[in-house]
Amino acid sequence: MALTGVLRPGHVAIRVLDMKAALKHYVDVLGLIETARDPTTRRVFLKAWDEHDHHSVVLRETDRAGMDYMGWKVDSPATLKKLAADVEKSGLCSDLGWIAAGEHPATGERFRFTVPTGHVMELFAERGQVGNDCGTDGPNLNPTPWPDGLKGIAASRFDHCLLYGEDLDGSVKLFREVFGFGLAEQVIGGPDNEVMIGAFLSCSNKAHDVAFIRAPVKGKFHHASFELGSWEKVLHAGDVLSRNKTSIDLGPTRHGITRGETIYFFDPSGNRNEVFCGGYIYYPDKPTLTWTEDELGAAIFYHDRKLNDAFLSVFT
Amino acid sequence: MALTGVLRPGHVAIRVLDMKAALKHYVDVLGLIETARDPTTRRVFLKAWDEHDHHSVVLRETDRAGMDYMGWKVDSPATLKKLAADVEKSGLCSDLGWIAAGEHPATGERFRFTVPTGHVMELFAERGQVGNDCGTDGPNLNPTPWPDGLKGIAASRFDHCLLYGEDLDGSVKLFREVFGFGLAEQVIGGPDNEVMIGAFLSCSNKAHDVAFIRAPVKGKFHHASFELGSWEKVLHAGDVLSRNKTSIDLGPTRHGITRGETIYFFDPSGNRNEVFCGGYIYYPDKPTLTWTEDELGAAIFYHDRKLNDAFLSVFT
Amino acid sequence: MALTGVLRPGHVAIRVLDMKAALKHYVDVLGLIETARDPTTRRVFLKAWDEHDHHSVVLRETDRAGMDYMGWKVDSPATLKKLAADVEKSGLCSDLGWIAAGEHPATGERFRFTVPTGHVMELFAERGQVGNDCGTDGPNLNPTPWPDGLKGIAASRFDHCLLYGEDLDGSVKLFREVFGFGLAEQVIGGPDNEVMIGAFLSCSNKAHDVAFIRAPVKGKFHHASFELGSWEKVLHAGDVLSRNKTSIDLGPTRHGITRGETIYFFDPSGNRNEVFCGGYIYYPDKPTLTWTEDELGAAIFYHDRKLNDAFLSVFT
Amino acid sequence: MALTGVLRPGHVAIRVLDMKAALKHYVDVLGLIETARDPTTRRVFLKAWDEHDHHSVVLRETDRAGMDYMGWKVDSPATLKKLAADVEKSGLCSDLGWIAAGEHPATGERFRFTVPTGHVMELFAERGQVGNDCGTDGPNLNPTPWPDGLKGIAASRFDHCLLYGEDLDGSVKLFREVFGFGLAEQVIGGPDNEVMIGAFLSCSNKAHDVAFIRAPVKGKFHHASFELGSWEKVLHAGDVLSRNKTSIDLGPTRHGITRGETIYFFDPSGNRNEVFCGGYIYYPDKPTLTWTEDELGAAIFYHDRKLNDAFLSVFT
Predict the structure, then answer these.
(1) Neighbours of B276 (CB within 10 A)
(2) Disulfide: which of A269, B80, C205, D276 matches A16 by Cβ 3.0-4.6 Å?
């Protein structure tokens, strides 16, 4: 985790147009597990199989796709208080406020704010654990390497989001200086390569926990990404997606950035998902990798070495 | 092998525009091994590492890309004579004739003919063996699973060609009835699905040894395919191709037809290559798999479920 | 297939001590599919998912483990008659006779005989097909690469048997000279390496369809092997076996012989099974690979380079 | 990293009996890269390809195998000072002292101490970076996913050590309470399962950075482990080891503990090495996984479900 106590992306709340179709996608195809449902707010809460916390994905049925917010789990209530104060002090965010405990099931209070790129983010410290069903003699006792009965792609974790917005510098400053993230990779451009176009930020040993791309929009959602254990599981994911006639955006392929092996696809509402594996082990003392704009194609899709039409133009 | 005694695709002769660039591609990138060179005819002979015969790929430098011819190894000189007579008797082929032994290095006489789709084919029975360098105590004694010193993609075998031509029915009739190939898969179309659009033919337990696509052209070459041992090697191939800035056509992905896992790319002259792995074990009593034209996208590229622009329009 | 018309190992009949336990193993763990049951003879018939024929494994409940017989599918009734006559003429076999059509469900008449190593073998030409459940618009129409609902290890095919017996030379002579098999690999030993200790025989492009090891016994069964598509599936198999507390003999590892990637384990009656992937593409003109007795360890278990205690001593 | 600022295992210093044989092993077989040599102290410094720091492995030629010491990189000189004081204050360690900057090439001062299990450990904050040779337009600019010219197994990182000693409780207390490590997994035994037999400790998102096994010895070394990217690379490692006739201890297989996929082998001096891939993503709020002694076999070697003879008895 970051020295600030930020542990990981704890949840992403995604807007869907039709909950039934969404659940078919997120449960039967992607393989998430439903853990709670809130009919009043038209929300369903899900987790990936290898997560212990109660939920990591929140689907909300409404009339417009996109991301409601992304939440970050921190290591203690004290850290939560401290970081909330730091966010306020930074002056970088707007719409600061607290969400009461229980608004998410099994979850303590959350501190909410809007980052400079226009995305709503949250911090929280407490969430009940429901386990990963691997223990054979108790919840965490003598475990098997994977549980029985997984569905579809069987993604193991919610991993990160890629987000589009204009004030990239502001959001990067927030995550680096207030939350202590490292800049694992960046894309630079402009006449003298003086503009940061993309930032891949890590609060862990993963190659990224959140990424931002500079674009003349506010609060846009490019994709939510889920982890798989191997390149063969990426192939299996492609097979499952095709069998279900899920719209695939691109892949299987390798990313230049993070080295991950990936496939992009769309949920029935048009929100992009990714499942991926691989990538290096990141440490705060690892040099930032830099991509120049002329190598942007290889940076994103290492094999094709060019962007597909959708990458820059389709988001929710 | 087929009951007729046809063993396998024994060679493909490809025209290249610049031999130096071609060798960089076929040797350093694809990983074939040069075994002979004939400056007079501007030809270079190569083999893949796990083939025992002297060569399986012939490159010829000239001013137009494409395939000169494809050769089939048969199990004996008697079979060669018998099949040459059968080809003649069939009346399906034109330009029949014998090529003297030695015209290819280490190779006996070849019987050459043009099949109904306009492709030049050959039969031959004899070729010297140079081994696969796996033996540790002699050429085929106490072998290792793979030899040291392989380059680039390290394709293990020349596997098949996909060819475009108008008289699909004629070429299919020749391969099935004269050469004893099985029709592993077919694509059908037309108003009542009465037209065979594609035929995937096998003389072995491989899913295909040659394939034909109906197209209003004569003797055109879509790709020559080389075998890899695993999906991870397909990823590695993609990485090697990108590192060498080789033009990738599509992939990594899965084919619907044959189930193979694949990546397509172009040599510097514009000839398409494939490396692939996987696919089922074919037997003559296996039912022919049929794809309808409306599923052509999934048949070719199972994940995308649609053809890319190049598949039908780019060939040499 | 061999030029003689022998297609493949068509079935193996295995004796089990307890049918209920055996079915848990062969269906739930190995992933075979039950296609028929014959209470009178206490037999259950099964197939692997990617086989089209009605069955490939016959389990019979009795008081002693081991192999009842192994069956070979040939390409036509004419071939069956011809090969039956050839077996008789060879003088190599004993206990020749015909089994009436229908004694196996969906199966024509079988010619049965005992080979020199003491194993009962059969030839047959006709068996009904039940398909592999991949077609989406009909049995073999617009298929998916794999069907839904597979269980456990999900072995795709019955592949070969390894058998122990004294008169190795006799059985090798029969398979090579009467059935037209190629000798893909051999192990040789004795003071001057003049004794063949093991023979790996192929009637296909697979590295082996049956193998014999010389041992001072008669008609003994070392293992029946089933095919998997990848090394990752071998890992998955190991996980499934451990989860089910199935006794694993050795692996995952690589074989030196055939290069296959493998795991050995025991059914509840003590019969050894193998699941494996990989290996080269065999052709009749491929040189025989030879292993000397001092390299026997590496030949069998390439990583350990030594046999485990069970390999030579445990069979049924 | 841990909140204390401990980043990772920064080096392991291993004693070897013959430097020439050791380098053949660590460079040609394991694939490490030599970065410096100190003839006076008979030491050679090496790094794995995907590490950026100057070195992570130190070999010293002497007359007894084993581990000299293990070093931990921390995030800053201030952390180094703080943790050195904390170690002293803890009273858990003996033989505390500072090693001058430069005693290791390209390395700042190191704080050395002996932990309760008898192992010499070090903390350090500064080490020069030599990069991973992936940048195509500069050291960290427009990188490829892997560099050219890797040798043998091509291990990507030094990952962790497993150490044997009597006072397990003391070392666990030190790493948890002073260094802030999490207890990812434990093995418990004794009449009432009240004794911790093994502890797998993480200062990162890896499943472990160091592990201790209780044994009636002092300062003993079980293995140093190196990371690979995939299960296929574990197979490749097994092939490379066999080709070089390296003594393999066990594997390829899966560990129950950490879920990693692994192969164990010995360097020419009898020091055990591991290469592995996989395992889950660890977080400090992940519940500790517990194995009971009766499941120790499955905990260590998940497929065999039993220890081999060497695991508990062979160490250096």
Answers:
(1) 27
(2) A269
Strand order in the sheet with D6-16: D33-38, D43-47, D57-61, D6-16, D66-74, D120-124, D110-114, D94-99
Tell me the C-alpha to C-alpha distance, in Å, between residue A25 and each of A133, A245, C143, C287, D261: 22, 11, 22, 52, 31
Paired strand residues for D44: D37, D59
Tell me the per-residue pLDDT of C65-99, one tens digit each, with 9 for 90 and over: 999 999 999 999 999 999 999 999 999 999 999 99
Residue A115 to residue D314: CA distance in whole angstroms: 56
From C219's Cα to the closest Cα of chain D, the distance in A is 29
Provide the pLDDT for residue D1: 81
Whether A144 and chain C come into contact, CB under 8 Å, resolves to: yes
First to last CA, chain B: 29
Please tell me the predicted confidence (pLDDT) of residue A310.
87
**Residue B186, φ and ψ in degrees, nearest 5:** -145, 150
Q: Is the separation of the CB atoms in A83 and A98 below 8 Å?
A: no
Q: Give C130's contacts (C-beta < 8 A, 6+ positions apart).
A: C35, C47, C52, C53, C54, C106
ipTM, 2 decimals? 0.96
Q: C245 phi and psi, to 5 degrees? A: 55, 30
The torsion angles phi and psi of B292, rounded to 5 degrees, stand at: -90, 155
Q: Are D303 and C251 an interchain contact pair (Cβ–Cβ within 8 Å)?
A: yes
The answer to whether D193 faces chain A, any CB pair under 8 Å, is: no
CB C85 within 8 A of CB C92: no
Boundaries of CATH 3.10.180.10 in chain B?
A: 6-124, 158-313
Residue whose structure tokens are 């192929």: C202
Which residue from A232, A245, A303 is facing B238, i.e. has the nearest CB? A303
pTM of the model: 0.98
In angstroms, the CA A176 to CA A154 distance is 32
CATH superfamily of D158-313: 2,3-Dihydroxybiphenyl 1,2-Dioxygenase, domain 1 (3.10.180.10)
Q: What confidence tens digit (pLDDT) does each residue in C279-293 have?
A: 999 999 999 999 999
> Chain A residues with CB inside 8 Å of B254's CB?
235, 238-239, 242
**Residue of chain A with shortest Cα separation from B297:** A242
List the single best residue of C29, C153, C230, C235 to mutate versus D (max D Cβ within 10 A): C235
pLDDT (tens digit, 9 = 90+) per residue, A239-255? 999 999 999 999 999 99
Residues 60-79 of B with CB under 8 A from C: 73, 75
For C76, C104, C113, C130, D81, the CA distances from C83, given in Å and listed in that order, are 11, 20, 12, 26, 85
Q: How far apart are CA A43 and CA A60, in angstroms?
A: 4
Mention the CATH class of domain C6-124: alpha beta
